[in-house]
Amino acid sequence: MRIKTMTIKLKLVLLFFGFFCLPFLILGKFWYDRSMETIEYNAINNNQQLMRQINYNLDVYFSDIKKATLPLLAHPLVQQFVKIDPNNQYDYYDLSSRIRADLIPNMVYNRDDIYGLSIISLKGPYYSNIAFSDRVDSYRKEFADNNKDNFRILGISMTGDGTEVITVFRRIIDNETYVTAGYLIIDLSLNRTTDIINQAQLGKTGMISIVNTDDKYLYHPDPQKWQQLLPAKYKSHFENINTPYFTNGTGAGKSIVVYNRSASTGLTIVSEVPLRELMEDLIYFRNLTLGFVLLLIVLAFVTILSFSLSITRALSHLMNLMKKVEMGDLSIRAPLRKDEIGSLNRGFNLMLEDLNRLIKMMHTSHQKEKEMAIHQRESKIQMLQARINPHFLYNTLGVINAYAIIAKVKPISQMTVWLSDIFRYSIDNPEDTVSLAEEIQHMFNYIHIQKERYQSLEVDVDLDLNGLKDIHTLRLTIQPIVENAFIHGYEDYSIKPTYIGLRASFDDAGIKLLIIDKGRGMPPDLVETYNQAFDYMSEEQMLQASAPFGGIGMWNVHSRLRLEFGEPYGLSIVCSENTGTIVEIRMAYRKERSV
Question: Which CDD domains did the record assign (predicted)?
Answer without folding.
Answer: HAMP
